[in-house]
Request: fold
Amino acid sequence: MRILLFSSVFFFNACLVLAAGNLSNESFSAAKKMLASQVYHDHSVTLYCGAVYDSGGEITLPEGFSVAAHAARAARLEWEHVLPAESMGRFFQEWRQGHPACVKGAKQYRGRRCAEKVNSHYRLMQADMYNLYPSIGAVNALRSNFIHAMLPEAVSSFGQCAMKVARNRAEPPERARGQIARTYFYMAEAYSSSYRMSHRQRKLMRAWNSRYPVDAWECARAGRIERLQGNENRFVKQACLEAGLWAGD
Reply:
């Protein structure tokens, strides 16, 4: 009985460790600064369009890039939640209904602002660096809070950058799909009490994960974030180990 109890406790604790997300940093602003200075310092390239940016966040737009909306944000670097903040936030009561502490003047508010103010678990999710990627501001703006999907009938929304946004969905270029899939899997496991991936979404992410394997940069990125944040993305790490690309950085 004692052996069985010990085994059960060990297994339970192991599952907690396995599923742990960000437990070290609640600041979204600090997460972005760490990513810029300690993760992407030698790989200043945006996720979707492969645009290069400088240390001041100024983007050199790739040849053939065009935008019909949000032009003022086209040359600006922004850090995007691959799993949208709304997809995480709607599971929190503060986001849906508000909270007694979320009052300005005589007016109550809810949504992201309220969840960020009063819920530390939401702040940890929002600041998780595994879910944050550099993006052209105009792309981030048009993508908004739309989930990723396949849009075979749509055309590129950004000229030669094959990013499509239509019908409240966003289809990323092939260059980004594997990273996106492994990020979705990580977030669904690390924050299983606060986010649930749909069956259709999970099926698509399985396909992307299989078709678009890890590369040296994705592995280096994960190693750096693990060192800074203190937890692993096992979906990336295991694939990197199997491919002989894991260095731990």
User: Anything to note?
Assistant: The longest strand covers residues 77-81. Residues 24 and 194 are 18 Å apart (CA to CA). Confidence is low (pLDDT under 50) at residues 1-18.
